[in-house]
Write a structure and sequence with these properties.
Blueprint lengths: L15 E6 L5 H11 L13 H19 L3 E5 L12 H21 L4 E3 L12 H13 L5 E3 L19 H10 L3 E3 L11 H19 L2 H4 L5 E3 L10 H10 L13 E4 L5 H10 L5 E2 L23 H6 L5 H15 L1 H9 L3
Parallel strand pairs: 1-2, 2-3, 4-5, 5-6, 6-7, 7-8
Helix pairs in contact: 3-4, 4-5, 11-12
């Protein structure tokens, strides 16, 4: 297993968005899921979706906006908010994950220059992690995926699952290290009416996991494990002094010397001051370009006339970043954190 290279490597001109979800899927996928949860036993092979339907769903939204905003490649996974680990049975989750992941593999096969596949895992509250290990291995070794999304709260905003540092997750971490793939920490939908899914649950999940990592010793057991915390790290960069102080009070290393060897943040922060804060607090080497397009916020900012989730323009607009910093954020860091992505790009001469 080779972890992320510590030394400088050739930077790519390919602009890599590390955080994209297939939010424009054909409606037949949602209908299949409704039937599954209703106990109607839909076709286990998934809904009948033609290549033309997949192309139309991608070209009209994801691909058009990718091109308009100046990105080249998106790490693409199923809709995070509809992973729905808190819904149905563990067996339902296994089948649903396979159907969704197979569809993502088709997107990459149809658009190999624009999308690279990342999988969801069949988590379920209280279920062993074994099915997740099996699905990860299938997606990476058979379908060529380069990473996975890992939900820290399969109970859907009730937080009835153990911390990410709990040993129940260890078989999955062992497989991730064996396959040399990272995980993006990403909750799914909220079934708690008091917790909005994208405005509260997502940000809560990001922040909560970072604190769990401070409290635990996960990276002593898995020094090569790599985790990406999305949405700019939730509240973490804004409260960096609090987390540094708590870590030091607990006798831990400085965060830059400890957790940041294994943890990265993306740029899914939807205003210029937020990106300025993120990139001034978190070392540039720990920031990956991400947009979550088309996702949590779909509208246009009336103050700027640009989409809130057009995050590339915020990175471009951070005046204190150098050209080298931007090259790292836009490509170099992702290629180090996702070595299977780097290998794919190198094989294609990119």
């Amino acid at each position: 297993m080779t972890g992320p290279a510590p030394a400088a490597r050739r930077e790519s001109t390919v602009i890599i968005d590390c955080h994209g979800h297939y939010t424009t899927v054909p409606k037949t996928l949602h209908e299949w899921r409704r039937a599954q949860l209703a106990g109607e036993n839909p076709d286990p092979a998934g809904p009948a979706i033609s290549d033309d339907e997949v192309r139309a769903s991608i070209e009209s939204g994801q691909l058009r906006q990718q091109r308009e905003r100046g990105a080249d490649l998106t790490l693409f996974s199923p809709i995070a908010g509809q992973m729905g680990h808190h819904l149905g049975t563990a067996a339902d989750s296994v089948l649903w994950s396979r159907v969704c992941n197979d569809l993502i593999a088709r997107v990459e096969a149809l658009f190999p220059d624009n999308f690279v596949a990342v999988c969801q895992l069949p988590q379920s509250p209280g279920a062993p992690i074994d099915a997740c290990v099996e699905e990860l291995e299938r997606c990476v070794t058979e379908l060529g995926f380069v990473g996975c999304n890992l939900n820290p709260d399969a109970s859907g905003a009730f937080w009835q699952t153990p911390a990410m540092t709990d040993r129940s997750f260890y078989p999955l971490y062992e497989k991730m290290c064996e396959l040399d793939v990272p995980a993006m920490i990403h909750v799914s939908g909220s079934c708690n009416d008091a917790v909005h899914h994208t405005g509260a649950h997502y940000i809560n999940g990001d922040t909560t996991v970072f604190m769990q990592l401070i409290q635990g010793d996960l990276f002593k057991d898995f020094p090569d494990l790599r985790l990406i915390i999305p949405h700019g790290g939730g509240a973490v960069p804004y409260h960096w002094g609090r987390y540094r102080g708590l870590a030091l009070d607990m006798g831990r290393e400085e965060l830059e010397d400890g957790l940041l060897r294994n943890v990265w943040f993306d740029t899914c922060v939807y205003h210029q001051p937020g990106i300025d804060l993120l990139t001034s607090v978190i070392p540039v080497k720990n920031v990956l370009f991400g947009s979550e397009m088309i996702g949590a916020v779909k509208g246009v900012d009336p103050r700027t006339g640009h989409n809130f989730d057009d995050t590339k323009r915020y990175v471009d607009g951070a005046a204190f970043l150098t050209d080298e910093d931007r090259a790292a954020i836009f490509a170099g860091n992702a290629r180090r954190v996702y070595p299977r992505l780097d290998a794919k790009l190198r094989a294609r001469g990119r």
